[in-house]
Amino acid sequence: MMHFLAVYGLSLLGKTWQHIYISGISLGLGIIFAVPLGIALTRTKRTANIVISIASMLQTIPALALLAFMIPIFGIGVKPAIIALFIYSLLPILRNTYIGMNDVDPSLKDAAKGMGMTPWQSIIKVEVPLAAPVIMSGVRLSATYVIAWAALASYIGAGGLGDFIFNGLNLYRSDLILGGSIPVIILALVVDWLLGKVETALTPRTSEE
Amino acid sequence: MFLSMEHLNKTYPGGKVAVEDFNLEVEKGEFVCFIGTSGSGKTTTMRMINRMLQQTSGTIKINGQDISQMDPVKLRRKIGYVIQNIGLMPHMTIRQNITLVPRLLKWSQDKMDQRAKEMIKLVDLPEEFLDRYPSELSGGQQQRIGVVRALAADQDIILMDEPYGALDPITRESLQDLIKDLQERLGKTIIFVTHDMDEALTLATKIVVMDDGKIMQIASPDEILQHPANEFVENLIGKDRLIQARPSITTVGQVMLTNVASITPDKLLKEALKTMHDRRVDSLLVTDDGGTLKGYLDIEDIDYNFKTATSVGDVMHNDVFYVKSDSLVRDTVERILKRGFKNVPVVDSNNKLVGIVTRAALVDIVYDALWGDDDKKSDSEDTTAETAAADQGGDAK
Ligand SMILES: Nc1ncnc2c1ncn2[C@@H]1O[C@H](COP(=O)(O)OP(=O)(O)OP(=O)(O)O)[C@@H](O)[C@H]1O
Ligand SMILES: [Mg+2]
Question: CA-CA distance, B181 to A86, in Å (whole number)?
Answer without folding.
Answer: 60
